[in-house]
Specification:
It is a single chain. It contains five helices and 32 strands. It is mostly beta strands. The longest helix is centred in the first third of the chain and has 17 residues. It is globular, with a radius of gyration of 23 Å. The N terminus is likely disordered. Bound molecules: CU-O-CU linkage (C2O) and copper (II) ion. Keywords: Apoplast, Copper, Glycoprotein, Lignin degradation, Metal-binding, Oxidoreductase, Repeat, Secreted, Signal.
Amino acid sequence: MLHSLFNVFLISLFFYNNCIAHHYTFTVKEVPYTKLCSTKKILTVNGHFPGPVLKAYKGDTIYVTVRNRANENITMHWHGVEQPRNPWSAGPEYITQCPIRPGSDFTYKVIFSIEDTTVWWHAHSSWTRATVHGLIFIYPWLAEPLPFLEADHEVPLILGEWWKKDVREVVEEFIRTGGAPNVSDALTINGHPGFLYPCSKSDTFHLAVQEGKTYRIRMVNAAMNLILFFAIANHTLTVVGADGHYTKPLNATYITISPGETLDVLLQADQNPENTYYMAARAYQTGNITFNNSTTVGVLRYISSSKAKTSLFSGSYPNLPFYNDTSAAFGFFTKIKSLFSGQVPVQISRRIITTISINLLRCPQNSCAGPNGSRLAASMNNISFVTPSHVDILKAYYLHIKGVYGTRFPDFPPLIFNFTAENQPLFLQTPRLATEVKVVEFGEVVELVIQGTSLVGGGLDHPMHLHGFSFFVVGVGLGNYKISDEDPSSMYNLDDPPYKNTMTVPRNGWIAIRFAAVNPGVWFMHCHFDRHQTWGMNVVFIVKNGIWPNQQILPPPDDLPPCH
Ligand code: C2O
Ligand code: CU
C-alpha cells in the first residue's frame, strides 16, 4: 500500500513536471487585429485572440497572475470551476472583487475539485470578455480511465462574436441611449469569421483530420449575446461532456450551445477523405428582435486528400435548424443526461422561485432609445440588479461594511400574473432598481425555479449561469411553472439530469435546478447574454459559513485589488 502510494506520488510528479504548469501569467494588453477589412485594437491575453488554453488535472490548484497592461479595468472568471471556499478568485467585478486597475497585478488561485472535461475562463468586467477568453482542459488524475474511447487528438473550438467597432464603444453607446446594443458583425470559429464574410477567405478556421482517427472537440460558446447551432457536414457528433461533467454519449447531427456552455464532442473522421466538409454555426433566436443572422464557416479536410487547396471552397454545408426552431434547440438541450444516476438531492430544504424579465424604465420626455422612448432593463423577481460601484459585495460581507447591499431578494415573485401571456399589462414592465442578495445557510439544499416571462417583446430564451456550483437541471418546461403543485417532482428527472453551471430557460418557459449550498461564499448568478447582465438580470447568493473550519471561506489573498 505504502509502496503504491509512493508510486502514485512519483508518477504525479512526473506528470506535473512534464505536461502541466501550475503557474500561468496572463498579460492583458491591447493588440491590433484586422478582420472583415477593418483594423482595431482589442484586449487580449498575451497578445492572443482567443486566449491560451489552460490545462489542469482534476482536483488541481493552479495560479494565474493577471497583469493588467491595458488601459481599462479587468477581472478574470474561471467559468465552471466551483472554487470551493474561495470566492476571492471568482472574478465578477464589484461582486467578489474590485477591478485590477491598469498597471496592477493580481494572482488568482484557481481551485479545481469535482470538475472533469472542459470549462473555460473569461474576463468579467463590463464586456471585456468579448475578446478575453480561453478554454480550460481538465484531465483525469493519473491513469483514471475516461468513460469514453480515448481520442487521438484534442481540438479546441471557441465560438465567438466580432464587432468591427471597439466593443467599449458598443457598450458605452447602449448604456447611454437606453436602447439595444449594436448587433455584432460576424460570428467566429477560433477567432476566424470564415469565408462567407467579406475579406475573410484567409481568415477561415481549418481542421485537417486523418481518416480513421477520433477527435475530441472541446468547445465553448463565447459569444456575447447569441445561442448558436453548430454542425459539421456529413459527420455525426457524439457529445460526451457538458459544462465540466461527463454526459451519457449522445449522437447528434447538430448541437445547440448557449453563451457560457462548454461541450466535449467526439468526431470520427470516417467520411470520404476526398471531399471537403464545412462546419458552420449560426444563431438560434426567438422573439422579435434584431440579431446577427450571419453564418460562420470552417473547413474540415482529410490530410490524405489529394485535393489542392484551391478546391477547399467547394465543399458540403451542414444542415442547421432554422433560427427560431425552439424544438430543435431544446430537443438538443433536453437530451443531455448526466453519465451518472442517483446523485440528485431528493430532499430540498428551500424552494426559491424567481421570474426573469426584460423591462422598461421611463425616461424624461421619452428621450431614450428603447421602445416608446424608454430605457431597456432586465430583472429577477422584478429587481433589476444594481452593481455596486465602490466596494464589492464579498468585501462588504466579509468586513461587515453596511450600505453596499440588502438581503431582501424575495423567495417568490412579488406579483403573480400569467407570466407567459401574449399581452401583458404595461405596469408590469417596470422593475425595482436595487442591490438585493439571497442569503442561504450552509448546507441548505436549494431548488431554484426560474420562470421566463413575456414582458417586453414577448419573451426570449435566457442562458442562466451560477458561479460557485454545478447544479442538476431537474426540470425544463414551457409555459408557467405550476406554483400550486404540492410535489412537482413527478414532472422532474431526479435520476440522471444534466449537471451544469449554465442552463437555458426556454422562451416563455421555466427550468428547475437543484444544488446543495455547501460552498460558502458570495456567488453571482446571471444571464450569460451580456446585454441582459448589463441590464440587471442578476442576483447574488451569499452562502454562509458552516460550523467547521473546512466549511468556511478562505482568508482573503494579500494582493487582492484595492477598492477606491
Ligand atoms: Cu461565464 Cu459570470 O460568467
Ligand atoms: Cu437573458
